[in-house]
Design brief:
The structure is a homodimer.
Chain A lengths: L20 E2 L2 H7 L9 E6 L2 E10 L7 E3 L2 E5 L19 H11 L4 E8 L6 E18 L5 E9 L8
Parallel strand pairs in A: 3-6
Antiparallel strand pairs in A: 1-7, 2-3, 4-5, 5-8, 6-7, 7-8
Chain B binds a DNA duplex through α1 and β3.
Organism (chains A, B): Cardamine amara subsp. amara
Main location (chains A, B): nucleus
Protein name (chains A, B): YDG domain-containing protein
Amino acid sequence: GKRVNVEMRIGSVPGIKVGDEFQYKTQLRAVGLHSKPMCGIDYMKVGDMKFATSITASEGYGYNDKFDSGFLVYTGEGGNVISKEKKTENQKLNKGNLALANSLRYKKEVRVIRGEERWDRKGKRYTYFGLYLVENYWTEIKDRGKVVYKFKLFRIPGQPPLT
Amino acid sequence: GKRVNVEMRIGSVPGIKVGDEFQYKTQLRAVGLHSKPMCGIDYMKVGDMKFATSITASEGYGYNDKFDSGFLVYTGEGGNVISKEKKTENQKLNKGNLALANSLRYKKEVRVIRGEERWDRKGKRYTYFGLYLVENYWTEIKDRGKVVYKFKLFRIPGQPPLT
DNA sequence: TAGACGTAGA
DNA sequence: TCTACGTCTA
């Protein structure tokens, strides 16, 4: 049980390979992949600007993120999208959403982790998918008339294939 | 990131020594010390009866558990004791509380883990304190007139000292 | 102090 | 489905 406290950064993490799997979000933090225990979008400040460092696309939360060959459409955060108790609101271009927009504008790499539900529903299976770039983003109006941000990311070519 | 799924049992855990420290509750689960990610009392069914396997006494949650030389007074679970939103209710002799009561009656060992707040407030420091036996339990009436269970446990002699 | 794509078991 | 001594950042 060694004490872990990794500095988060943009880009690949030394020692972590595409396809590496983890069981808990605390493990993602321990190895330096994703710092936030409950947030999908992790980001850091460089000077006065936020950039995304990593996103985890966990299935089964009502976000309906779509993984396709080399692409990913990812739903922004905020607006109580997955809350059962709180009222849905418009998502805003702040926090993680703003960080992803900045990553697009400045062509910063984003680590992508996919979280899959396990058949035994004990923990998840978090798989490191590699580095992506944000291609564009837009807003959609969801069921209850609220604004939701969508980010399209493409996988940077030349990385090991996902089996 | 090897997949972990340990069978929980009563008594000491092979390979775990008094004083071993951990950072997250998911680690406690991984090594077989404490299965529940957010509950203080872990227990298992033997035949038709529940017995406690381990308790974590985390500081800073308004439970006011007391560690003394060889003794521990532990607050039972339930009743929304630490909830800020929900109304406080009477604790009942069920779930983990019932398991601890059975551990007293049948003299079953209980693993004790102490969770301390860290100065940097990142993670906790969970320390394995060794095996205890429940000496007795009682109820108290707390501030808002609600029933709270208290369990007194003593540390089984002959174990390595806690430095 | 509150918010956020957490976890497991009853 | 819900509860439960979670865990981090803003």
